Amino acid sequence: MQDKKITDLLESFQAIGRTKNQGYTRTVYDQAWCQAQKQCVNIIKELGLVPWVDEIGNLYATADLTWPKEPVILVGSHLDTVVDGGLYDGLYGALAAVLSVSQIVKSGQRMGRPLVAVIFSEEEGSRFDATFTGSQYLLGRHLKDFEHLVDARGQTFGQIRQAAVAALSPFVQTASRLKIAQYLELHIEQGPILEKAGTDIGIVTTIVGQERFLIQLAGQANHAGTTPMDCRDDALRRAVGLLADLYRELAQIPDLRYTIGKVQLEPNVANVIPGLVTFALDLRHQDQSVLSEAVGVVAELVDRYRAKLERTTAVMPTQMDAGLQEEIAGACQSVGLTHQFLPSGAGHDAQVMGEQVPTAMIFVPSVGGVSHVPEETTTPADLENGQRVLTAVLAKLVG
Ligand SMILES: [Zn+2]
After folding, report:
1. Per the structure, how many domains does the chain have?
2. What family, per the record (predicted)?
């Protein structure tokens, strides 16, 4: 596999988790995820590296059979997708990381620090109401913080995690969690800025903070025909008021991104008055004080409607390391590519890592600026450019 390109590696995933809409669904620990993990293990071995798996299902690739004890230079991204997502979000950076590590190892360059690629088990939060579980675990969160979570089909995180990781048992290591000196992540931009500007490479300055909530509003389920209108406690009717107020009040906060992307009714039957409405609210901003103000507005409204508020994600805005940003700019120059600095409006594992270790992110253009949909794509030239820059940066960092 000496001359494999990033595009070849990505192509080998085209049949895994493919949906009828020509997108990809790989939620953590599902069948497609397990298949994709196995394919990653094959690639790691074929590229001459050693695969390892930890107990949450993060997959690592190292140069030799010794699990590194000293701090490593870590490079990677995530394996999971949103439902009906594209081929490139997460997987591109994960495979590029493995390929870049293998190229540096093969080059025979002396390595002052161990270089490790990581493919995080989960980042998107598309199966359980928790995000970044892979990178959070690596940084010291306990499994028991996630094990009780239940997916839409009633399966617990704990049960399915054990089954999924057991399938990779020959590679499981329980020696210790990695110590990390620096973390790098290559990712598609998922927005229109680089393409519009005609720039080859984006260097991320900061990643927006993110708060995600589950809001529950309870009423009384009852018969649609026999319950007079003035005797009803219709959960949906009240929820509509709360939703309208949320949209109106949150719109007053400049540059806030707010999304209600998931709404569930119970019992969700045509002839029964809704007894319970649950919806998810996602808030993002690059300034933590603005984000906190938005959370205050939400809490007050939820209280006014006697609803219940549960915070499922809270990630602070994260500055990327200035020194690493300069290294990436230098690498772009050395391989003859243009670059620009930009913030990331999407959350990434780099955000979690950046809270504890010097971290940086490299973006490549997204065609049409679209992502989290089957149409998500990046040109082969841009895919290769990003991976070349990644290799150049890593080669400098380990030297
Ligand atoms: Zn991603």
Report:
1. 2
2. Belongs to the peptidase M20 family.
Distance 203 CA to ligand 1 centre (A): 16
**Which letter, b or e, does each residue of 362-393 get, where b requires 16 or more Cβ atoms within 10 Å of its Cβ?**
bbbbbbeeebbebebbbeeebbebbbbbbbbb
- Do residues 171 and 190 both lie within one domain? yes
Using the mean position of ligand 1's atoms as its centre, give its distance from the Cα of residue 117 in Å: 16
Q: Is the peptide bond before 267 cis (omega within 30 degrees of 0)?
A: yes
pTM beyond cutoff 0.70: yes
Examine the domain organization and report whether 201 and 216 are in the same domain: no
Residues 275, 337, single domain; the answer is no
**89 Cα–ligand 1 center, Å:** 5
In sequence order, the 6+-apart residues with CB closer than 8 A to the CB of 241 are 305
The encoded tokens of residue 152 equal 């839409």
Beta strand pairing call for 201-207 and 222-223: unpaired
Per-residue pLDDT of the chain (399 residues; tens, 9 = 90+): 457 899 999 999 999 999 999 999 999 999 999 999 999 999 999 999 999 999 999 999 999 888 889 999 999 999 999 999 999 999 999 999 999 999 999 999 999 999 999 999 999 999 998 889 999 999 999 999 999 999 999 999 999 999 999 988 888 876 678 999 999 999 999 999 999 999 999 999 999 999 999 999 999 999 999 999 999 999 999 999 999 999 999 999 999 999 999 999 999 999 999 999 999 999 999 899 999 999 999 999 999 999 999 998 888 899 999 999 999 999 999 999 999 999 999 989 999 999 999 999 999 999 999 999 999 999 999 999 999 999 999 999 998
Q: Specify the CATH number for the domain of residue 79.
A: 3.40.630.10
What is the whole-number distance in angstroms between the Cα of residue 222 and the centre of ligand 1?
42
Domain span holding position 284:
209-315
Residue 1 lies in a domain: no
Residue 298 shares a structural domain with residue 342: no
